[in-house]
Amino acid sequence: MALLLCLGMTAALARGCLHCHNNFSEKFSYYRHHVNLKSWWVGDIPVSGALLTDWSQDTMRELHLAIPAEITRENLDQVARTVYRKMDQLYQGKMYFPGYFPNELRAIFREQVHLIQNAIIRSRIDCQRHCGIFQYETISCHNCSDSHVICFGYNCESSAQWESAVRGLLIYISNWHKQDTKMSLVAPSISCLEPQHLANLTLESASECLTQH
User: What is the pLDDT of residue 5?
Assistant: First the structure.
């Protein structure tokens, strides 16, 4: 089984992902201001308004990701297009019967959460298709700033590629430690990845070694 090692990333409490899209403010401002025209029952209005107001915060609460919420711009655009299309269709209708409108909002919200989950996880899994250190550009859902994810892929086709990948990993770890003085002072040496051991290093032994460190 291919394994994925994600390096140098720490989880952070995020506010959401969709709010990082360029059209989010304009779209959701419209949705909030027109929510009072979408239901025959006055009780649906505050419920629907709260769903729209808390959309970003609730998104991250429901993601339940063990990895940082960082999404590629392409995937964010795809999620946004899907959400806006469904929301626009919902708002094109006339007034709905009691309970229908907030239920539809919840359904769109849940679909959005699943789309974001799948996009973030799929990008990480795609790293397995590479050999060695690989980096891809993302947007941090925490503050909408440009970020990147660095991974180590195990999909090497030859022993020479594998040895080159491990050497690249060693260089990355060394540079990472140098950038962090505290880390460099307390980080243990990874003896199983030292040059004299690379020739006999297997995928299983490397995985066990990295897990222990």
Answer: 35
